[in-house]
Hints:
Helix content is 61%, strand content 12%. It has a five-stranded mixed β-sheet, sandwiched between helices. It has three domains: 2-412, no CATH class; 464-590, 2-Layer Sandwich (Transcription Regulator spoIIAA); 602-744, Jelly Rolls. The protein is elongated. The chain contains 29 helices and 16 strands. Helix 1 packs across helix 15, helix 4 (111-138) runs antiparallel to helix 13 (309-325) and helix 7 packs antiparallel against helix 8.
Amino acid sequence: MAENVSGATAAGTAPRLAGRYLTVLTAGLISGVLTIAMGCAFSALIFSGPLSGYIATGVKLILFGAFLLGAITAFTSSYAGTVARPHEIPAAVIALMAAAIAAGVPGRVCVEGAFVTVAAAIAVTGCATGIFFLLLGYFKAGNLIRFVPYPVIGGFLAGTGLLLVKGAFGVMTGKALTVANMAYLADPAVFVKWLPGLVFAGVLFLALRWRNHYLIMPVWLALSFVFFYIALPVTGMSLGDARSQGWLIASLEGGGPGAALSLSSLAGIDWGLVASQTGRILTVLILSSLSLLLNASGLELVVREEIDLNRELRATGLSNLVAGLSGSTVGFHSLSLSALGHSMGAKSRLVGLFSAVLCGAVLFFGSSLLSYFPRPIMGGVLLFLGLAFLHEWLYESWLKLPMLDCVLIVVILVVIGMFGFLQGVGVGMLVAIVIFVVKYSHVSVIKHRLSGADFHSNVDRAPDEEQVLSRQGEGMHILKLQGYIFFGTANDLYEEIRRRSNAETLGTLRFAVLDFRLVNGVDSSAVNSFVKMKEQARTRGYRLVFAQVPPDALTSFRRGGLGLDQSDSFRVFGDLDRAVEWCEDEILAAEGMLSDGEVRSLGEELREFFPPAMRDPGRFIDYLERREVPAGFYLIRQGDPPHSLYYLESGRATVDFENESGQRVRLRTLRPGTVIGELGLYLRGPSTASVVTETTSVFCRFTSEAMERMERQDPEMAAAFHRFIVRRLGERLIHTNRSLKALLD
């Protein structure tokens, strides 16, 4: 019986495995075919004009790079179904680079010298991109690229689409789509060369808009091949005629990748021309980083699985470094091909590997077949990609993005079209900086405006002291700051304090407290405004108080000439709580109320809660234990069971909390006249913090046993005591609610 079950299981597993591997193989083959088609198109785009004789060698270099890119990325990506290939965005910029190098080669230098220089520039670009990706991934800086404004990215990609459209016509006719070339492109003999590519791109574009299915593009490619080779005999044209008239690329026979390159030819590289393309190489680095992270983020949404962006950068960096050494263009994740495997249920590293192996097999064993790839289809592939970019970033963005963002996309596109990609990138970055400055200037550096009447330090004080602080708290102006402070926002801060010092309806300003806890940094241009604040505080008679200033900001202050020495008009504290406590102490000292000496006893505090016949507190004192203890004495230890309430008559105590790492954090400071431990006494839960004396102190202890005894023996006194505790808790809650309201306003 067991053997039958085992046999049945094995019999059922084999077909499932076979079906799974067939699906994986199909997804890999489709990805490989599309990668080969795009590789041929990219080669024709890059090696155009005087370099058109090297399209065949360019195809070999790109396919070899596609093999390396796909295989390495398939094994190292954080997502098992990732498919990587040479990409159209860097290819469009590299095409500009190749055209500039070809135009810059001296007339006496042969075309081969121009080709090897272009090949060297492509290799340098690929290696530089790989190193850049590796550094971004190593330093976990992948998310930094996301801070480039979205419309700027859209402008770059729309510009890429325009370059691909212009380059597509160059592939099909030998001349790019420009205003100057309109008459040439309209010539009937030329018109028939680009019309089939336009039809190919138009049908494919509309078909994918109608239904985005993974089979549409490979099927349309196959049908287009059939239509082309049916049309040749119909028009009476032989293969030789088609090749001689430019309908097909030159033969790819003869060796592996880089067969046209030799050691002697490498000596002809003009490294000066390569160095002159540094700007475009940097453009490739930026655009490739943005595109890789956009594709990886988009793939996360498609597969609903978290992808490690920094690992993707490292994986793609390694593959580009290796492929760059072989002379291939830059490549990275293909969102559409990676999503293809997911949609077919083929989540496997074999998808990317099969795609890469197909590119290698065609390169090494079937390169002669690529010479039958029609130029109209190569141009049509580029034209389709360009139209897809323009549709997404001009038409769709106009429906989704704000008007200002759409205008910025159009501006960058126009600059790229009129002056060049590098200029478009420069204008885009400049506009992004301007937009950032304008928008950031509208973000207030002041997160919260508080007064001493609403916001108190973590110091529990006697009720009469709390009343004084609430009455005179408007004289303390507290500003909780945020973000990065530069000249504009610092000047707004200076004006805020100046307006408050002139606001007579709010009373005299005595303290201006600036909390820097949420400040990321202070620009050197902003220091002058803080110098003016300090001088204004001295001349107008209030105190300027800084709290929790970051080390970098302290350095900027010192270098900018802002003295941080303590003075009558200027103070610096480690945190806002200490700063506000000092201001409160100054207010109370001016009223003659600041003292750690004895206050009224707990019985005297309860007097007003007693019935008229019980005004003598002596009966209550019998339930108390009064003690004098030294500094460092624990009234309550964190985690101990609750047992007592404490009333501090003199001295000071601190409430602190010990976290899991053993670090102690101050929660509150207790001054004479305060009560602690009341919640534990009533709720009977374990103590959540410790209470330890800072100085020699006198306290009264009221235990849970004493409270139970008082409730039995003297219910009226117990009721008075409960009313007293309710009053204290209510006052504390009122202060807390007032602070929360001030923070929310």
